[in-house]
């Protein structure tokens, strides 16, 4: 098997590194010192640079002005974004664009994708349901009204919703299959209430009261919402990996300089063993991430496997949710009190890691889901 990345994927990484090279993780007030949001908006100048480097159109087909790359390429770029805590809706924007491209009507694709690729339109997705624990598609109901649809319900913790132009909202019709509606932020009957993430970002509780959606803006292709959900989860695993790698590098630099009894603490066996364990966590997070991203692309191309792609995504989420927590906890321990200094960036990475862990959900839940898949799809 060939585990190397393609030239196009590697070129995307180099472009991302160039764009993120000047991004400072502490460019906004500290979440530890800010009672509300650290900023009202995401990083618009960085968003413009991403658009100018064609990274927002990375996963779009050439007919929509994109490079036609895949989920692996997107995860590679997300990994670089997380290294510097880039405050942009890159994951939600690109994942939603991929859903519209693969399953949306030609009218919807033409209306959204060219502008999305240029960064002129911002897309996001409501993926956390009413409570953050229940399936998102059950939080909103969709019923036919004349030539369109009407949406009612509540979605919580919608990222970047106050700044987005369009929001992808999963819903149920009462007939078993989930649908995906693309709703403009300014739609009549849609209201946003402020919420705040652990990392200090501004989220939104989305309330829909009879929001009208034309037929062309609703995606009812079987499996469309499930694929978007899996892509969002896999992208979150990529963010966790990039963040964890930066934290471990930060810890290595600190313990290499910090001396105790005349020696760098990095030379102490207890410190080296803890750092090595976290390195193993990161490598496990990495290999399960690429397996999940590859399966999402392979499934789109018609390739199957002994388990649905949901199994690979579940494994990636198990490692990412546990791994990113262990990495930042060890980093805080090895930094001592210095890790809690708000003039030092580690506390920001810790807050972001906790937010990613909450988004991914507990490993035990993913282990249970994986067990159900194994029971339903015997490997023998």
Short structural description:
With 380 residues, this protein is α+β, with helices and mostly antiparallel strands. It has helices at 7-20, 44-52, 71-83, 90-103, 106-117, 224-257, 269-300, 309-335, 346-360, 363-376, and strands at 123-125, 140-145, 148-159, 166-172, 178-184, 190-196, 202-214, 218-219, 259-260, 263-264. It has 10 helices and 10 strands.
Distance between the termini: 23 Å
**What oligomeric state is this?**
single chain
How many strand elements? Answer: 10
Helix content: 40-55%
Runs with pLDDT <50, length 5+?
Answer: none
Shape: globular
How confident is the prediction overall: mean pLDDT?
Answer: 94
Strand arrangement, largest sheet?
A: 1-4-5-8
Using the CA coordinates, give the radius of gyration. Answer: 21 Å
Residue share in β-strands: 15-25%
Q: List the helices and strands in order.
A: HHHHHEEEEEEEEHEEHHHH
Instruction: Let me know the largest β-sheet.
Output: 4 strands, mixed
Counting DSSP H or I runs of 4 or more residues, the number of helices is 10
By helix and strand content, what is the structural category?
Answer: alpha+beta
Task: Characterise this structure.
The chain is an alpha+beta fold and 380 residues long. The protein has helices at residues 7-20, 44-52, 71-83, 90-103, 106-117, 224-257, 269-300, 309-335, 346-360, 363-376; strands spanning 123-125, 140-145, 148-159, 166-172, 178-184, 190-196, 202-214, 218-219, 259-260, 263-264. The strands form three sheets. A four-stranded mixed beta sheet has the order 1-4-5-8, with helices on one face. A four-stranded antiparallel beta sheet has the order 2-3-7-6, with no helix packed on it. Helix 1 (7-20) runs parallel beside helix 3 (71-83), helix 6 runs parallel beside helix 8 (309-335) and helix 8 (309-335) packs antiparallel against helix 9 (346-360). It is globular.
């Amino acid at each position: 098997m060939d585990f190397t990345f393609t030239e196009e994927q590697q070129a995307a990484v180099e472009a991302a590194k160039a764009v993120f090279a000047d991004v400072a993780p502490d460019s906004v007030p500290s979440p530890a010192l800010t009672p509300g949001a650290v900023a009202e908006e995401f990083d618009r100048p960085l968003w413009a640079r991403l658009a100018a480097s064609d990274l927002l159109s990375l996963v779009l087909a050439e007919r929509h002005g994109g490079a036609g790359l895949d989920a692996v390429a997107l995860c590679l770029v997300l990994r670089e974004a997380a290294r510097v805590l880039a405050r942009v809706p890159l994951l939600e924007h690109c994942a939603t664009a991929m859903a519209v491209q693969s399953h949306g009507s030609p009218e919807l694709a033409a209306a959204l994708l060219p502008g999305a690729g240029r960064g002129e339109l911002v897309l996001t997705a409501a993926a956390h349901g009413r409570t953050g624990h229940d399936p998102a598609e059950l939080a909103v109901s969709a019923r036919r009204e004349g030539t369109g649809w009407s949406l009612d319900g509540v979605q919580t913790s919608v990222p970047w919703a106050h700044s987005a132009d369009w929001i992808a909202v999963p819903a149920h019709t009462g007939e078993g299959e989930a649908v995906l509606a693309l709703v403009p932020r300014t739609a009549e009957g849609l209201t946003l209430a402020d919420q705040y993430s652990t990392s200090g970002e501004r989220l939104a509780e989305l309330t829909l009261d009879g929001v009208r959606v034309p037929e062309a803006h609703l995606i009812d292709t079987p499996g469309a919402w499930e694929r978007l959900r899996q892509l969002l989860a896999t992208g979150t695993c990529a963010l966790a990996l990039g963040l964890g790698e930066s934290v471990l590098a930060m810890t290595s630099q600190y313990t290499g300089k910090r001396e105790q009894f005349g020696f760098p603490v990095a030379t102490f066996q207890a410190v080296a063993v803890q750092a090595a364990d976290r390195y193993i966590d990161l490598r496990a997070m990495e290999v399960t991430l690429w397996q999940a991203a590859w399966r999402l692309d392979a499934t789109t191309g018609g390739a199957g496997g002994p388990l649905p792609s949901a199994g690979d995504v579940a494994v990636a989420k198990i490692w990412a949710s546990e791994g990113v927590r262990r990495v930042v906890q060890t980093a805080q321990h090895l930094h001592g009190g210095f890790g809690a200094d708000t003039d030092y960036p580690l506390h920001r990475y810790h807050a972001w890691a906790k937010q990613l862990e909450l988004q991914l959900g507990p490993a035990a839940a993913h282990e249970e889901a994986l067990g159900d898949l194994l029971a339903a799809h015997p490997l023998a």
